[in-house]
Write a structure and sequence with these properties.
Low-confidence stretches: 1-6
Helix content: over 70%
Mean pLDDT: 83
Largest sheet: 2 strands, antiparallel
Number of strands: 6
Strand order of the largest sheet: 1-2
Structural class: mainly alpha
Order of helices and strands: EEHHHHHHHHHEEEHHEHHHH
Distance between the termini: 48 Å
């Protein structure tokens, strides 16, 4: 009988994962391994593209390679919207995540096994598609493990994000080590093995997840499925025709992705504002516009860790320690360490301040402005020649990157849900992801203007622009708060 214990028997204890529901270990593991593979691959794929053939690379122009990386990063977040739609309307979060993990693994296998540009093209497309689906559903699955009023909920999400950053830390370290000792394809192969490990564990444990993660929350009517199929085929035809006619090329890909994201953003805002929402809800949607712009500006600089900062680490950074040279990709592991250390500090500060903590627009303004300051910190070290920047300098600059990130990124999805009209909760979160997508895609456009031999104008202009956007939002904080109608 429930609540009783037979004489002489110990009461049955619930199996837990660091005090959380044990099944949190399932998305924890799959996301740890997915981030391991994602950032492990991302730490070496740019230099793989622009290194010469004798160095094991493809010899692609450096600026073109940076553009490809920006377009790829923007596509990851753009495909998050598609992944969320598939989960909500077609197959549920569980099946979407499992299928997406398979696609990611195939992408890493393509990079490891397919030669040349073919491997890069097929691999990055598959990884972008799969990562979008994973990002859209993993958080939903974690949330499905808790009741709305479960006091363990926030701590469970904190533990989950620890797994994300552990993967982001170890991935570049190990893939970079293999790349520097055995070659690029061994590094890509390790990323594939990592994703396979997460996929196997998820496949074994997924049947123990709550039923809610397998449910389709808003199933599409069967009669509309043929229309969906037609639209998918039409989209693929448009892409193929654009490629064959030269309208879409590797050179203009970053600009095309930016244009698509801008159109999607405008479309989302128009749909939400014209859908019969109340005056208060409409005001809050307008309040999200300056936050969206600040977020896009922030990410357009922050995501250059995978373009300009990677090139900087390769060509301008003194990576020698005791006569041994650190692999380029190891620089990508610095930020996750700071996130792991500082995220708890920021959480404690906001908790202690309570109602006295800065408002959301102020946090966005500070995050964007400090990101600009991080770029300006490169200026004293311009012109120092190849391998002329001390390693500790870049570590310090990446610390500033992290402070800016913790001011803006964690509150982005939160404020999107708080400002969302009742019937557009998911779409407003999608809008935040589109700001990330727009900023990341913009890195592909901006990175082309970076010149390692004359870098001062690049860091100066972008740094001052971000600071200006931050100051402007700070000046207009009170009007934005009025539009937010009581939301802080």
């Amino acid at each position: 009988m429930s609540g009783t214990t037979a004489p002489g028997h110990e009461p049955r204890r619930e199996r837990t994962f660091f005090g959380q529901p044990f099944e949190l270990s399932t998305p924890f593991a799959v996301e740890l391994w997915e981030r391991f593979s994602f950032y492990g691959m991302q730490g070496i794929v740019l230099i793989y593209m622009y290194y010469t053939v004798t160095q094991g690379g493809l010899g692609i122009d450096e600026k073109l390679a940076s553009g490809i990386m920006g377009a790829y990063g923007g596509a990851v977040y753009l495909f998050t919207i598609i992944g969320a739609w598939i989960a909500d309307r077609l197959v549920g979060a569980d099946r979407t995540l499992f299928g997406s993990a398979v696609v990611v693994m195939l992408g890493h296998i393509a990079l490891a096994l397919l030669p040349g540009v073919t491997g890069v093209g097929v691999g990055l497309v598959l990884i972008a598609l799969g990562s979008g689906g994973l990002k859209a559903t993993a958080t939903t699955i974690v949330g499905g493990l808790y009741a709305k009023d479960d006091p363990r909920r926030d701590a469970g999400f904190s533990l989950y994000y620890l797994g994300v950053n552990l993967g982001a830390f170890f991935g570049p370290l190990l893939t970079g080590l293999l790349q520097s000792t055995l070659g690029f394809h061994f590094g890509f192969g390790l990323a594939a093995v990592g994703m396979a490990a997460g996929l196997v564990q998820y496949g074994i444990r997924r049947r123990h997840l709550p039923e809610v993660v397998r449910q389709v929350s808003n199933p599409i009517a069967r009669r509309r499925l043929p229309l969906v199929a037609v639209l998918v085929v039409a989209g693929l035809v448009v892409v193929v025709v654009a490629l064959l006619t030269g309208l879409l090329t590797v050179g203009n890909l970053p600009t095309v992705v930016v244009a698509i994201v801008v159109l999607a953003t405008v479309g989302y805002f128009v749909v939400i504002l014209s859908s019969g929402i109340s005056a208060e809800e409409r005001s809050r949607v307008f309040a999200f516009v300056p936050l969206f712009i600040a977020s896009a500006v922030f990410w357009s600089l922050y995501q250059q860790q995978f373009t300009v900062v990677t090139i900087y680490a390769d060509q301008r950074l003194d990576r020698t320690l005791g006569g041994w040279e650190l692999p380029v990709s190891w620089v990508q592991s610095i930020n996750p360490v700071f996130i792991i250390v500082l995220s708890g500090v920021f959480a404690a500060i906001w908790t202690k301040l309570g109602d006295r903590q800065p408002s959301t627009p102020t946090k966005f303004a500070l995050g964007t402005g400090i990101m600009g300051v991080a770029f300006l910190l490169f200026l004293p070290f311009t012109g120092t020649g190849r391998n002329g920047t001390p390693l500790l300098v870049l570590v310090g600059i990446l610390l500033v990157f992290t402070v800016a990130e913790l001011l803006l990124s964690p509150v982005g999805q939160s404020v999107a849900t708080k400002l969302a009209p009742a019937k557009f909760q998911t779409q407003m979160v999608a809008l935040f992801f589109l700001s990330v997508s727009l900023g990341t895609a913009a890195t592909g456009v901006l990175s082309r203007y970076y010149d390692p031999t004359d870098e001062a104008p690049y860091f100066l202009v972008l740094g001052l622009a971000a600071v200006a956007v931050g100051v402007l939002l700070l000046v207009f904080t009170k009007p934005v708060l009025r539009l937010m109608r009581g939301v802080r």
